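go over this chain:
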Amino acid sequence: MTAPAQTRVAAERLDAADPLAPARADFALPDGLIYLDGNSLGALPHAAVARTRDVVEREWGDDLIRSWTKNRWIELPTRVGDKIARLIGAGAGEVVVADSTSVNLFKALAGALAMRPERRVILSVADNFPTDLYMAQGLIALLGGRHELRLVAAADIPGAIDATTAVVMLTHVNYRSGAVFDMKAITQSAHRAGALTIWDLAHSAGALPVDLAAAGADLAVGCGYKYLNGGPGAPAFLYVAERHQREFVQPLTGWLGHAAPFAFETGYRPAAGIARGICGTPPVLSLAALEIGVDGLLRFDMAAIRAKSLALGDLFIRRVEARCAGRGLALATPRDHGVRGSQVSFTHADGYPVMQALIARGVIGDFRAPDILRFGFTPLYLRYVDVWDAAEILADVLETRAWDRPEFHARAAVT
């Protein structure tokens, strides 16, 4: 682990010795801005601009419909899926890119319940990301209310898995606190009880080492626009372990998930393997941008990314607690490296206006209700001096009460 920086000069030295430092030049980052929100939207890779321009001007503009074959557009969902698989410990043919995280979760959950028809319980936690809970609630209603969404505390998950549990549905890294579940241990507990697991990797993929195969995971989903740097609204991914693919049936039986989509048959036949997870026509422009983001991550060792992520988080926690003591902040993120994702969260009674004041000062994080200031650490483009300076600015905002202005209290549509 990187030695702690005790001064800003020491932080500068860490940056000078950082093996990941050259990656920062790959991203478009405005001067004077400290971007600590890559856990919500990754920064723009320069190469994505050139790639999407080429797709628009040459592949779409010149080659038109021929690009589905000539430029291999039709392969994008599985080709990018295979690349993401390398980041999450999956094998080739186990990941496909399509739709949104919510839609893919619906597919995975419906498929899991169909594989456990005698069981009725979907087990999760109350502070799971809300869309996951909403999709479960909607599916339960669609299936006639025969199933139950059972919510327990995170620590109670292993003991709550029983013979009624069809599937354990969890977000690997908690979106508020950044706490990390022990994927392998929980998956093993589920399997001992005959249940399946669905892991939401939205805050894991590209941020920390994930090994779905080693954990024995059954199904997983994740988004492309956070640590994968795929751009706003980038398509999401769906993982189905190869051992389940033959029996995996998802209800959104669109034409590109058909065994022979261009046969235009009246009846649906699912494609072999992971391709049955596709529904409609893939979003080519978004997939092209996402592929650039994924390629950028694959250039680096995930262990090195994780080590720097934790070092950045440690520095931020240490400096904020040293500079902001008595200012109403409380750490909401685990200190323990083994159970912390690539973010640090603090609570504050006036968290929303504090974050707005920070953003006005050029430090971009985000706020999560009811009181969480959330800061994401993306090692490919974040520097140690950025973290040092962000803590200093936060201290000044709190000390001077710069946050207590009417414009900072006015809630925007996006927080």
Notes: The chain has a mean pLDDT of 97. The radius of gyration is 22 Å. The first helix runs from residue 8 to 17. The chain is about 35% helix and 15% strand.
